[in-house]
Design goal:
2 copies of one chain form a homodimer.
Chain A lengths: L3 E5 L3 H12 L4 E5 L2 H10 L4 E5 L7 H11 L4 E5 L4 H9 L4 E4 L4 H18 L11 E4 L2 E4 L4 E4 L2 E2 L4 H12 L7 H8 L11 H14 L8 E4 L3 E4 L2
Parallel strand pairs in A: 1-2, 1-3, 3-4, 4-5
Antiparallel strand pairs in A: 6-7, 7-8, 8-9, 10-11
Chain A binds a DNA duplex through helix 8.
DNA sequence: ATTGCAGATTAGGAAAATCTTAAGATTTCG
DNA sequence: CGAAATCTTAAGATTTTCCTAATCTGCAAT
């Protein structure tokens, strides 16, 4: 099954919302409305990630974060209603790996969780038993997310970070059409997207160019007009 | 039958309007003009989605939203007359999945309801007994909304975005007649429609032409004079 | 059979979406 | 800091799709 994620927030609605969205991605969620209740779970369960609210009634979320860090080094994401820069930084220096300010869009939260998990499991392959396989293979194409290598028909493709991300997303959803906007949001979660932003188009172009160097039919990435891009399953 | 949808709004006209449009899409509607009346329904009925006004006389809609979230995970859409960004965001963090500001166009509302239902049922297949499936099959025809593919008797149909939409709508309502105006509004929710606009006719023509390439009797799409088009069930 | 109207058929131009390029901005790294 | 790599922006070219409008066809009521 999916990774084990701890969620601690005294605002029930938010904790529940987070839980629902994480479960819908097949993660196993351990949800608590208070820090004290969560402590036992932290000690007894081998977690893969924690999402902690900073403002908790019984214990400061940052303290909880510290407590986790005493014995564990899986990713910790802080939730905070405050938009104060100082808090963010404090959270990060205390051992958190990312922070999300409320209010947040649920899908953005999920994207960040996945990003942290990927990074974590990359350096902890022993924890990666149920991770999204770091190596993706598809008709002549081999991608290794860990090593950031990509081979097309035995030949190495030198891809930039963004190009790599686009190709990875298309392969992960291979068969389905992915719109430019979806790609954009998967890569730059918070950034604002407008139709006049054609940066995805340009990166797609670069990708196709690099792929066409080693492949006759560079139709790997298909354009579905008015809908998006896809790689045939 | 269709999904069960809760509608709560003290403005009778709006609640009634929402009800009519949802019923016309074969949803089962549970309508209430106050939050207190709705509470019992929430406890006793296995709902699939809720539409709540924020401004209610007897209880804040957001509170109602919270109450639902305590025990249920189905999508919640908030209605609000206020166009204030803060309110919208509050609604979302409190557990709502989408919001619609009044005044709204009914068909847009229906579209959002469908979008939320699709997402919800996708992750809750046990609830998907009557979900709109991403793949539609009908006498030799296979449509996959995700991959944007369409096969007619094993042969691929290359459809444009609009053609695809028209065929999808006709198939989703297969058996019943759909007028050109209905098709138009399903596809271009906001745009103005006038009889002199024969664009649907033209797209239907293109569809029929593409289908006739692989089928002897291109009577898949029947014309009901003076009423609309339909695909036999 | 005639007539009126709804839909069908075309084709060409308009509009929209994507592609291509290249220059300038930014980031990275030594 | 400076060079190289990468990213973003923007403008114009290209491709695909859509819409309009004029004409044609055929249903259906009289």
């Amino acid at each position: 099954m999916g990774s084990k994620i701890l969620v601690v927030d005294d605002e029930h609605e938010i904790a529940d919302l987070v839980e629902v969205y994480l479960q819908s991605e097949n993660f196993t969620v351990y949800k608590f409305y208070g820090a004290l209740e969560a402590l036992q779970c932290i000690e007894t369960t081998e977690l893969d990630l924690a999402i902690l609210d900073i403002m908790l009634p019984d214990m400061n979320g940052l303290t909880l974060c510290q407590k986790i860090r005493e014995h564990h080094h899986y990713p910790i994401i802080m939730l905070t209603a405050k938009d104060e820069e100082t808090d963010k930084i404090t959270g990060l220096t205390l051992g958190a790996d990312d922070y999300i300010t409320k209010p947040f869009r649920p899908l953005e939260m999920v994207a960040r969780v996945k990003a942290q998990l990927r990074r974590y499991k990359m350096y902890n392959p022993n924890r990666a038993e149920d991770a999204v396989s770091p190596v993706i293979v598809h008709s002549g194409l081999v991608m290794n997310v860990d090593t950031h290598e990509c081979l097309l028909n035995e030949k190495s493709l030198m891809l930039t970070k963004t190009e790599f991300s686009i190709l990875r997303i298309l392969l992960e959803k291979k068969g389905s059409v992915v719109s430019a906007e979806e790609l954009f949001h998967e890569i730059w979660q918070d950034e604002y997207y407008s139709k006049s932003n054609n940066t995805i188009t340009v990166h797609i172009r670069h990708l196709r160019e690099k792929m066409s160097d080693t492949v006759d039919h560079p139709k790997y990435i298909k354009t579905i007009w008015g809908v998006g891009y896809k790689i045939e399953a």
